[in-house]
Amino acid sequence: MKALDEKLIILGVTGGIAAYKSGLLARALVRAGARVTVVMSEAATRFVAPLTFEALTGNPCLTDASMFEQGAAISHVELARKADCIVIAPATANTIAKISHGFADTLLTTTVLASSAPVLMVPSMHTGMWENELTQGNLDGLPSRFTVMAPDVGVLASGDKGAGRFPDEDSIVWEAAALLAGQDFEDRTVVVTGGPTREHLDPVRVFTNPSTGRMGIAVAMAAQVRGARVRLVLGPTQVEPPRRITGRSMDVVRVETASEMLRAVDEALEGADALVMAAAVADERPVAPSAEKVRKGDLPSSVKLERTPDILMSLANGLGDIVTLGFAAETGDLEAAGRAKLEAKGLDLIFANPVGGGRGFASSVNEGILLGRDGFSLPVGSMAKQDLADLLLDHVAALMPGLGTDS
After folding, report:
1. What average pLDDT does the segment 251-260 reach?
2. Vertex 158, ends 155 and 162: CA angle to 5°?
3. CA-CA distance, 315 to 22, in Å (whole number)?
C-alpha cells in the first residue's frame, strides 16, 4: 500500500482480551508494506506472548522491561523520533486514561508522550466501559494528532452485545494509511462504481457475471484515504461494503440492475470531479422477465434478450469536465479492445485487463494496460488491487485541474 510503504509503525498492544487480534493486525500492516515494531504493556503480555509478534513482524517486541535493559535508557526517545505513526490496538480504558492525562509510566505511554507522530487509537472494551462518561471525557481530551477509531458493535467476550468490539484488521490498516497519505484529493468528489449487476429472468434466476466488486472497493478506499469525498455505487456482491474512515466521507448506494446503477450514478455525479467505472455491468437482460418462478419443466429453450442501458453513453452529455476512467475486461488483444472502448465511450482513461484462467474476476490481484485519450499507454504488471487503485488515481489526478501525481 503506497501510503504505508516502508513507514515505521509503532503498534502498541495493551491488556485487553482483543490483544490476540493484534497479531492479525501486525501481519496486515507488514503485508501493506510497513515496518512494524510492537510495544506491549505488561498486562498485554499476559494475553499474548511477545514472541508471537516477533515472528509476525521480524522485529524485536518491546515491553516495559525493555526500558531497563542495558543500552536502552532512552529507548522511548528513539522510538518516538523514528516513528511515522503510532497505532494503539487494542487501546484499553486504562491506557486511554493514562495518555489523556499525560502519564508516562510504561514504555508505550512514554513513547507516545515523547513523539509528535500521528496516533491512531483503536479502543476495545466492554460497552459499559466504552460508554462511561469518564472514558468519553478522556477521549475528548486527546490532542488533535490523535484519531479515535470507533469500535465495532457486536457480541463481546462477556457475551453481551454492544459497542466495544475490535474492528477487522483491514479497516485499521486503511485508517493508518489515511494518517500518512498525501491529501491530493481533498475537497474533491470521486464517484466509483463496483461489482456486477443482475438482470432477472424470474425471481430466482439472473443474468450476471463473476465480478466481486473488489476493484471498485479498492478504488473507493484509496480515494477516501487520499482525502476525497467518495460516492460508491455498488452492485450485488458478497464482499462487505467499505467502512468510512474516521473524519472522511463515504456514501455507499446498493443497486442490483443496470438501470438502477444508471439512476444512482446520475444522481451521484452532481458536483463530482471524477468518475471511475469499475463495475461489470450486464450487457443484456430478458425482454419479458417473469414475476413468478418459472418451473424447471417450463423453462424456455431460448430467451429473448435486449440491451441494458449503457451507463457512460447515457450520461455522456452531462459529464462536462469530469475526469472519466473506465475498465475493459478482455480475453484477446488488450490494447486494441481497450482503445476501441476508450474512443467509443469518450473516456479520458481506460484500464484493460485480461480475464479468464483465474485472472481479473475474483482475484486479489490485477494486471493489464492503462490507456489514455492522447495515445498514452502504460503496461501494468500483476499487483494487488489496492496498489493498482493508487496507480490509477495518480493518473486521474494528473488530469484534474490543480492536482498533481504526488501523493
Report:
1. 97
2. 40
3. 46
Helices (H), 101-143: 107-114, 127-131, 133-140
Report how far residue 22's alpha carbon sits from residue 14's, in angstroms, rounded to the nearest whole number: 10
Question: Are the C-beta atoms of residues 62 and 84 closer than 8 Å to each other?
Answer: no
Torsion sign (Cα): 326, 279, 227, 222: negative
Tally of structural domains, the chain: 2
> Which positions are catalytic?
209
Predicted pLDDT at 404: 56
Q: Which residues of 393-405 are buried (b: 16+ CB within 10 A; e: fewer)?
A: bbbbbebbeebee
Residue, of 316 and 291, whose pLDDT is higher? 291
Paired with 9 in beta bridges are 36, 85
266 lies in which domain range? 189-398
Query: What's the chain's length in residues?
Result: 407
For 210-238, b/e burial (b = at least 16 CB within 10 A) is: ebbbbbbbbbbbbbbbbbbbbbbbbbbbe
Query: Cα(251)–Cα(244) distance, rounded to whole angstroms?
Result: 8
C-alpha angle 141-147-153 in degrees, rounded to nearest 5: 100
**% of the chain with per-residue pLDDT over 90:** 84
119 within domain boundaries: yes
Helices (H), 226-309: 258-268
Give the pLDDT band (50/70/90) at residue 405. very low
What pTM does this model have? 0.91
Question: Which CATH number goes with the domain that contains 253?
Answer: 3.40.50.10300
Look at residue 205 in the predicted model and tell me its pLDDT: 94
